[in-house]
Design a protein that fits this description.
The complex is a heterodimer of chains A (about 120) and B (about 110). With about 120 residues, chain A is mostly beta strands. Chain A contains no helices and 11 strands. Helix content of chain A is about 0%, strand content about 50%. In chain A, strands 2, 4, 5, 6, 9, 10 and 11 form a 7-stranded mixed sheet that branches. Chain A has a 4-stranded antiparallel sheet with strand order 1-3-8-7, with no helix packed on it. Chain A is globular, with a radius of gyration of 14 Å. Chain B starts with a strand and ends with a strand. Classes of the chains: A mainly beta (about 120), B mainly beta (about 110). At the A-B interface, strand 4, strand 5 and strand 10 of A face strand 6, strand 10 and strand 11 of B.
């Protein structure tokens, strides 16, 4: 168990550029989540995958954000035309679950995005 | 919509002091409740959970009881240690079939020797 891995750890970009983050979940985990956290706030849900299917997406999520999980393994989160308000820590979490949704989530250390 | 309100931090306690971090919630249906903890330099990790009213979650000396009548899930520990210094997040998962966790803002705890 190597834990949830996120890359890069830090990303600095200019406003208007596109960025992509990668998350490698724990290998046997079928569920994968993306959250966003800003300073002084708790994590905010972005989207959820069960295997390769994206089953839930936050209503607050702009259409500039897109996520994929091809083959149900790693996931990518892309932000197009970044804005300064996108600056945040982007967290990935994974879990193994069937039926119940109250299993333990394992979080990665996050990707810190700074938009200049 | 769902929301979680935690007591404002930071909280500073001496070693062996009693800890309470208050958490109240608003949710549709019958939510499940969680406490997550983030130690310095580490990712969030589940501390404890309770999935129905009157359940008590416990782990590492921490406890929290799911109180439906007061919509609360306060975190307590009888004797804190320096190693408990971390940020604590209360969270809920709505009973309405959603997979998302709704988190509070977090409470930073510092324990001094």
């Amino acid at each position: 168990d190597t834990g949830v891995s996120q890359n890069p750890r830090h990303k600095i970009t200019k406003r208007g550029q596109n960025v992509t983050f990668r998350c490698d979940p724990i290998s046997e985990h079928n569920r994968l989540y993306w959250y966003r956290q800003t300073l002084g706030q708790g994590p905010e849900f972005l989207t959820y995958f069960q295997n390769e299917a994206q089953l839930e997406k936050s209503r607050l999520l702009s259409d500039r954000f897109s996520a994929e999980r091809p083959k149900g393994s790693f996931s990518t989160l892309e932000i197009q035309r970044t804005e300064q308000g996108d600056s945040a820590m982007y967290l990935c979490a994974s879990s193994y679950g069937t039926g119940s949704v109250n299993e333990k989530l394992f979080f990665g250390s996050g990707t810190q995005l700074s938009v200049l | 919509g769902d929301s979680v309100t935690q007591m404002e931090g930071p909280v500073t306690l001496s070693e062996e002091a009693f800890l309470t971090i208050n958490c109240t919630y608003t949710a549709t249906g019958y939510p499940s409740l969680f406490w997550y903890v983030q130690y310095p330099g580490e990712g969030l990790q589940l501390l404890l959970k309770a999935t129905k009213a009157d359940d008590k979650g416990s782990n590492k000396g921490f406890e929290a009881t799911y109180r439906k009548e007061t919509t609360s899930f306060h975190l307590e520990k009888g004797s804190v240690q320096v190693s408990d210094s971390a940020v604590y997040f209360c969270a809920l998962r709505s009973g309405a079939g959603s997979y998302q966790l709704t988190f509070g803002k977090g409470t930073k705890l510092s324990v001094i020797p």
